[in-house]
Amino acid sequence: MDRDNNVLVSFLQAFGIILVVIGHAYYGDTKASWTYAWIYSFHMPLFMFISGYLLQYSAERKKITLSSMPLYGSKGFIWKKVKRLLIPYFTISTIAFSLKPLFNRFAIRQVDISFADYFQMLVYPWDNVIIFFWFLPTLFLIFMLVIYGVHFLKEMDKPVFHVCLLIFCLLLHLFNPLQGIFILNLQGVTDYLIYFLLGYYGCRMHIVEQLRYPIGGFVLTCLLSVCFVVEIPDFKGKELLTAINGIFMSIFLGKIYTANNWKFFHHLFGASYAIYLFSWFPQVLSLQVFLRLTHAPYWAGGILATVTGVYLPFLIYKWIITHKQKGWGSTIAFLTGV
Fold first, then answer.
1. Is 225:19 a contact under the CB 8 Å cutoff?
2. Contact, 165 vs 197, CB < 8 A?
3. Are 51 and 196 in contact (CB under 8 A)?
4. Secondary structure string (H, E, C) spanning the chain
5. What are 8-29's pLDDT values in tens digits?
6. Residue (of 182, 225, 191) closest to 45 by Cα position
7. Which of 32-41, 162-171, 218-227 has the weakest average pLDDT?
8. Average pLDDT for residues 207-224, to the nearest whole number?
9. From its phi and psi, is residue 72 left (phi > 0), alpha (psi between -120 and 50) or beta?
10. Region 265-288: what's the mean pLDDT?
């Protein structure tokens, strides 16, 4: 069962990152608008769910509780998340900010080198030169909220308290009091916290393992997913229901993958984070430079952007893993959090 859980989580990470890459590859393609809308209806909530699940799952595998996990010091939880999320955010954003003016004539958003723009890019994640890096500081702040909450409220570990906490975060999501507060993407923190907690409690209460009938569940959630995106008009909470449905759809698909002992995603296991970090540049080259120089149809650039967005970062990941214990490899591994 533990092996199945490992494979399931790794599958969800690989499946999620492929959705991210495809979504970025066809950004702006009106012919792919429904596909784009479907992917964006749940792929980032899925990543938040996985992050919350892994937080609890890693603690269980180490046979410790989150409330006993050390927070400070070189091996503390906070420094680990700084290395994993904030240092890559700072490092790769800085490199991209320095290089992007060279490609301004191809860029959708042009960049001028100035300290003010550089500072704003880091503090306002949605203004980052790599726009989908908004996820990194947002996830870091959610980690901090949850880990400090677990430590401070460890004496309140009662079922009724956890239910009330989930209801409170659900209301935060539906009636976001920080809506429009883009500094450090505080708006996004309150939006995505609920999905992180659903993953955390999904692991803690073993809900994911208890899900049965994966084929029937996958078919049902697929139909609901299409209906939410194509047929059902907007209403309060639709975004939340669509995202949760997409998360369950992904879990059922992962259970089918695991039950059939499929392996076609196995080669991507462990590389999801590196693909997320490094896919920006090959995708920009494919969509902006390649298309403008060759005048090829958008679908051709989308295919190229998908393939290069997955496999060039995958090759970088393999190089870092091979060389991370020596020389420049260890420095690059530290600066990128891989």
1. no
2. yes
3. yes
4. CHHHHHHHHHHHHHHHHHHHHHHHHCCCCHHHHHHHHHHHCCHHHHHHHHHHHHHHHHHHHCCCCHHHCCCCCCCCHHHHHHHHHHHHHHHHHHHHHHHHHHHCCCCCCCCCCCHHHHHHHHHCHHHCCCHHHHHHHHHHHHHHHHHHHHHHCHHHCCHHHHHHHHHHHHHHHHCCCCCCCCHHHHHHHHHHHHHHHHHHHHHHCCHHHHCCCHHHHHHHHHHHHHHHHHHCCCCCCHHHHHHHHHHHHHHHHHHHHHHCCCCCCHHHCCCHHHHHHHCHHHHHHHHHHHHHHHCCCHHHHHHHHHHHHHHHHHHHHHHHHHHCCCHHHHHHHHHHCC
5. 999 999 999 999 999 888 776 6
6. 191
7. 32-41
8. 92
9. beta
10. 89
CA distance 211 to 208: 6
**Residues constituting the chain:** 338
Q: Quote the crossing angle between the two packed helices 43-61 and 33-40, to the nearest 10°.
A: 30
pLDDT at residue 246 greater than cutoff 80: yes
Q: Which CA distances in Å does 252 have to 25, 214, 245, 296, 310?
A: 25, 5, 11, 37, 23
d(CA 270, CA 298): 30
- Per the prediction, the chain carries an average pLDDT of 88
Instruction: Find out whether 92 and 277 touch, Cβ atoms under 8 Å.
Output: yes
Token digits of residue 107 = 């860029």
- Cα 338 to Cα 92: distance, rounded to the nearest angstrom: 12
* pLDDT tops 80 at residue 298: no
**Two structure tokens written together for 141:** 């702040």
Long-range contacts of 261-266 (CB under 8 A, 24+ apart): 265/10, 265/11, 265/14, 265/15, 266/10
Whether the Cβ atoms of residue 184 and residue 126 lie closer than 8 Å to each other: no
Question: In the predicted model, is pLDDT for residue 251 greater than 90?
Answer: yes
In sign, the C-alpha dihedral spanning 29, 33, 37, 43 is negative
Given this model, what pLDDT does residue 5 score? Answer: 82
